[in-house]
Amino acid sequence: MPPLLPVMSAAVLLQAGNGLLQALLPLRMQAQGLSGADIGMVASAYGVGFAAGCLAAPRVVRRLGFVRAYAGLAAFMAILALALPLAGGAVGWMLLRALTGAGFAGLFTVVEGWVGSGSQDGNRGRVLAAYMVTTKLALMAGPLLVEPGGDQPFRALILLVLLSILPVAVARPVTPALPTAVTLDLRGLFRLAPSALVGCFVVGVVSGTVLALAPLYGLRVGLSDTAAAALLIALQGGSLLAQWPLGWLSDRRDRRVVIAAVAGNGAVLSVGLALLPAGSPAWAVWVGFALWGSQILCLYALCVAHACDVVPPGRIVPTVSGLLIVWAAGAMAGPVPGALLLDRFGPPGLFTFAAAGCAALTGFVLIRRAVRTRTPDPLRLPFRPLRPDGLTGAAIPDPRTAPAPEEGR
Q1: DSSP symbol at 394
Q2: How many CA atoms lie within 13 A of 255 on its CB side?
Q3: What does the alpha-carbon distance between residue 199 and residue 194 come to, in Å, rounded to a whole number?
Q4: Measuring CA to CA, how many Å separate 139 from each of 22, 236, 302, 371, 394?
Q5: Helix crossing, 282-296 with 255-274: angle to 10°?
Q6: Which InterPro entries does its entry note (predicted)?
Q7: What percentage of the chain's residues is helix, strand, coil (to nearest 5)?
Q8: b/e for 32-67, b at 16 or more Cβ within 10 A?
Q9: What pTM did the predictor assign?
């Protein structure tokens, strides 16, 4: 774990800025008179940019290395933060949000590829859980910096992004080996880990929609700007409490079973929020969002851990990039219909949409597991501590005797 601390520290600062934007932009666009559909289109533009950034990120890492790639992308994000206060109208917001999506995609690919390569199969669920817990704390803190009427939050974003370069550049951490492959192979990944691939897409659709529209949802149920932004804190706070236990459990059980159970819980909670009576007190809304976040916002890390279990180490970076692209496709597809349902049916429409997505994922994973009989996983190795040089201390299976990875997981 110590060799991963610098990049995790950078991720914390970066995610604080991301959380700030998630809360600030819907409120700023609402104040400028944009409709719910326009705000949904801007959120979808983020998904488009995110997908484009994921496509380019593995090549950037291969050419520049982890440290230089992170520093260059962080500088790009700081430039975009300077331009965001100048956005005017839906088209301007869509363009700049797409560019920020590309920048965040590159940064997250570097960070998550670094973390995934620096962990090992026997403890990857816990390592990714630790990474998610620390970044969720940052996401919870980000909305506290929101001031919808001024430009101060954008200056705070620039500061956070530039500060995130320091742990990576100054601490000189031991970086993992550069990826041996940079091309995406989603078809091959689907053959190896369909539950991970489909899971990331559904997580993008459902969580991307709720995260993008949560402040708007809060305003529609009568909350103030500050209380509406605090819904994002409730979401991340709930996931913070559940991420580590779920990661620990997934290291000891079939990760697909954990994914299906979490998605099923999310479907039930979504139905509960859709049925929440009008005029419910603010604390009831916050509790509902916290419980929902404790399930759905934990799914992504479980899906990534499942995929990293079954791919060769040299393909972890393009695998993480591919999963981010799939997540971005979901984040691009979800907000517009989610916003339309919110406009048409009011707040219940948003969580009816979420319930349908969670139920579909639960059914898919359970059917896949029933169709494919599980065999012992040759790539899941017992826990070994990380060596001081940052490489895993796990023994490498002899390719002459180790069975091939199971397909169709």
Answers
A1: P
A2: 30
A3: 8
A4: 9, 7, 19, 38, 33
A5: 160
A6: MFS, MFS_trans_sf, MFS_YcaD-like
A7: 75, 0, 25
A8: eebebebbbbbbbbbbbbbbbbbbebbebbbebebb
A9: 0.64
Q: pLDDT tens for residues 137-170?
A: 777 777 676 665 567 778 888 888 888 888 887 7
Report the Cα–Cα distance between both ends of the chain, in Å, rounded. 28
175 by DSSP, 3-state: which?
coil
Residue 405: DSSP 8-state: P
Report which of 235, 327, 300, 320 is spatially closest to residue 273, judged by C-alpha positions.
235
Q: Which residue has the tokens 């520290």?
A: 9
pLDDT in tens, 325-375: 788 788 778 888 888 888 888 888 889 999 999 999 999 999 888 876 544
- 90: tokens are 């839906």
- Report the C-alpha gap between 21 and 16 in whole angstroms: 9
pLDDT over 90 (residue 298): no
For the chain, what is the largest distance between any 2 Cα atoms, rounded to a whole number of angstroms?
65
Could you tell me which of 134, 143, 140 has the C-alpha nearest to residue 164?
Answer: 134
Instruction: Judge contact between 106 and 73, C-beta under 8 A.
Output: yes
In angstroms, the CA 19 to CA 343 distance is: 24
Query: What CA–CA distance (Å, rounded) separates 136 from 132?
Result: 6
Contacts of 217 (CB under 8 A, 6+ apart): 210, 228, 231, 342, 347, 350
